[in-house]
Design goal:
Chain A has 140 residues and is of the alpha+beta class. Chain A is 20% helix and 40% strand. In chain A, a hairpin with a 4-residue loop joins β7 and β8. In chain A, 30% of the residues are buried. Chain B is 42% helix and 23% strand. Classes of the chains: A alpha+beta (140), B alpha/beta (165).
């Protein structure tokens, strides 16, 4: 329970922000926080709160996995790379051949989720393949 | 002697009469009155009760032993209750949460390769579910990496040897 006290503000923030299916479990000295945030902003806020309690996440006592619930099949997603194009690959993995690219800030369609990491996407000009989910943000 | 006997008899009859009158005069509390009092008590709202001739039977599920005896004490305190039969049962404890699923090292290693593709100065390995991160990067990039690594379902992410610029 000690970890739940240390990260109380983080858990309270998640609850107050309406994170769905919120699970907070402590196991072998690590606090696992899972759930679905109603928006990307809520997810960002949770990571900022975590960073505030444990600067640079260096304690290694939390594993937080928050998805954004608006990222559903059919939703429009924006390419949020640093500044480069986003690779669209034949299969889910960086070892897969590149079949196309989506431009930085381009709005594309989320077709389905192969995993939390790899989403099947389609560009407006019809290129379809898998992209790394971290570079895709639901258009809100 | 005979007179004394008469006197004694009179006293005895008087005592008997008074005691009988006293008992019959004591207001009898109806079962319905007891029931009304139980129903008015919010502390007993989760408990089913039945009353017969001043004997109250409690049933239903309560959360613990303390709640069970508390209900009994409260009912015993109600005027007219002669006896309490406490048939309340204790609710089973809630099932423990499902254990956290930790990914195997192979999918973790593949996930790490994907997550770190754009961060060549950062290295990470997986052993027994623990991801150990080394190398150097900026604070902003480390945050993105940590978000990506946590989503792989590791046991933990250790980055004490990572240099954050």
């Amino acid at each position: 329970m000690a970890l739940q006290d240390k990260y109380k503000e983080l858990i309270d923030t998640a609850t107050a922000a309406g994170v769905a299916n919120l699970q907070v479990r402590e196991q072998d000295g690590v606090l696992y926080i899972d759930g679905e945030a109603p928006s990307g902003a809520v997810k960002d806020n949770l990571w900022n709160t975590y960073d505030k309690i444990d600067p640079n996440f260096l304690s290694g006592d939390v594993v937080m996995n928050i998805n954004v619930s608006t990222a559903v099949p059919g939703a429009k997603v924006k390419v949020v790379t640093e500044k480069t194009n986003l690779n669209i690959r034949k299969g889910p993995g960086t070892d897969q051949p590149i079949v196309g690219k989506a431009a930085h800030n381009e709005i594309i369609t989320l077709v389905s989720k192969s995993s939390d990491q790899w989403w099947l996407v389609r560009t407006d000009d019809g290129k379809e393949g898998y992209s790394y989910a971290q570079y895709l943000a639901p258009v809100e | 002697m005979k007179r004394t006997f008469h006197q004694l008899l009179q006293v005895f009859l008087l005592v008997a009469l008074v005691s009988v009158t006293a008992v019959s005069c004591k207001p009898k509390i109806k079962d319905s009155d007891i029931e009304a009092k139980i129903q008015a008590n919010t502390a007993l709202s989760d408990i089913a009760t039945s009353v017969k001739d001043g004997v109250v039977t409690l049933s239903g599920e309560v959360k613990d032993e303390a709640a069970k005896s508390m209900a009994e004490t409260v009912v015993k305190g109600i005027e007219g209750v002669k006896q309490v039969i406490n048939n309340c049962t204790i609710a089973p404890p809630p099932p423990p949460p499902a254990p956290v699923e930790i990914a195997a090292d192979d999918p973790l290693t593949k996930g790490i390769a994907d997550a770190l593709k754009d961060y060549p100065t950062v290295k990470a390995t997986a052993a027994d579910g623990v991801i150990t991160v080394t190398g150097e990067t900026t604070k902003a990039n480390w945050k993105k990496i940590k978000i990506a690594l946590d989503a792989l379902h590791p046991k933990k992410v250790t980055a004490t040897d990572l240099k954050i610029k």
